[in-house]
Amino acid sequence: MSIRENIEGIQARIAAACARVGRNPAEVRLVAVSKTKPATLIEEAAAAGQRLFGENYVQEFADKTEQVRAPVEWHFIGALQSNKVKYLRGKVTMIHSLDRLSLAEEINRQWAKLDRPVDVLLEVNLGDESSKAGTGAEEAIELVRRVAELPFLRLRGLMALPPWLDDPEEVRPYFRRLREVARRIEALNIPGVSMAELSMGMSNDFEVAIEEGATLVRVGTAIFGGRG
Ligand SMILES: *Cc1c(COP(=O)(O)O)cnc(C)c1O
């Protein structure tokens, strides 16, 4: 199957998942996760109408933004060291992987130089032992309060990376938990904090994630094939 066929197939599955739960498909954006894939394949996806891409590694991202000519939008979704934030400055429209205050402060410092804010999502660890990424659900609220005070960050919602499980139904409780954490934060009515976005769901489980409220699904393999 071509990249175009893959994207069309995924868009149809997104629409079907939305229809099952009465959601508007316009609420769900497909993030094409292009880590390890060359710029030529990103161009191919862009030619098929894909506009939004997600990258995980700063150096690889910096190289590819030089190479890709198509007008695309980039989100950063990978683990992020503070000393590398400067390489993302002005090049990404959203960072999904904010998990600590020191990183938030560095993002704030870098976007201050542009005198405009960047959208961020708080990455929440939903209690999966195998993953250390993300802030704990309880600590999340304290971090939200601190991030809300940083003028060049716009907190737009939450992201989670649940364990990879064969049966997507087994991942459903994690997606529900993320939505529940978002509801709790929303109920606090912290000025400047929105919980409009839920970044959850990957190739194997994005339909279940959509049924549970995902607004950004991060799909790599199902678009570009395996990563070898
Ligand atoms: C690689 C990656 C994805 C995409 O995973 P696939 O299973 O290839 O769809 C999504 N989110 C994050 C954070 C990733 O690192």
Automatic annotation (TrEMBL):
One of the record's GO molecular function terms: pyridoxal phosphate binding
Entry keyword set: Pyridoxal phosphate
Cofactor: pyridoxal 5'-phosphate
Described purpose of this protein according to its UniProt entry: Pyridoxal 5'-phosphate (PLP)-binding protein, which is involved in PLP homeostasis.
PANTHER family named among the record's database cross-references: PROLINE SYNTHETASE CO-TRANSCRIBED BACTERIAL HOMOLOG PROTEIN, PYRIDOXAL PHOSPHATE HOMEOSTASIS PROTEIN
Family note: Belongs to the pyridoxal phosphate-binding protein YggS/PROSC family.
Name of the featured protein: Pyridoxal phosphate homeostasis protein
Organism: Trichloromonas acetexigens
